[in-house]
Design goal:
Blueprint lengths: L1 H27 L18 H11 L22 E2 L8 E2 L8 E6 L4 H16 L5 E7 L4 H11 L5 E4 L15 E5 L5 E6 L5 H12 L4
Parallel strand pairs: 3-4, 4-5
Antiparallel strand pairs: 1-2, 3-6, 6-7
Helix pairs in contact: 2-4, 3-5
Length: 213
Amino acid sequence: MRRALLMVAVSLATLTLLSGCSEAAVVTRKPQVADQTPASAAPGPSTADLASAKKAAGIPDCPTSDPAVAPADEGLPDVVLPCLGGGRDVRLAGLRGRPMLLSVWAQWCGPCRTEAPYLAEVSADNDTDLLILGVDYVDPLPDKAIEFARLAGWTYPQLADPDKQLAAPLQIAGPPQTFFVTADGTIGYRHSGPFSSAQQIRELAAEHLGVAL
């Protein structure tokens, strides 16, 4: 019995020593130089790179907007957003004269990936005066956003809202959100969440904008 207890004590001591060596190895291991470089130190894409990527993706420049027209009652907020990848800035309240589908999305948004092909299908078939306009929302990676749009086949203009300017006035908790806006600037309908089909988009455009896609 005494011999057995002695063997158990030796075994426990051995395990303790081994465990201590393992922890010491982790603590004293010299970190690699790459591990000491913060992710934020990596340079982002240049303006020229973004413009080139946007052109390669087939994304057109953003539409012109009226700088002086008064905001519509129950319309889009009077904010100015940059064009994704470069180009003219757009005053949302100054977009008038055409019905519009305003799609708020982000490349980090899972549901946005779900509805992406439906938006692509509708935009490809659009031979009406409907303006389809995207807004890349709260996205720190514009290059990834452009790549997302390219892979989705979104060949319509894209704005960017990196600073959540639309969050309060449009009560956006998160993307995707889609706004059907009439030609006079009034928001006719708001669709929260992803679309389930291209047909759903067509039906909502017909119902709220009188547009037959």
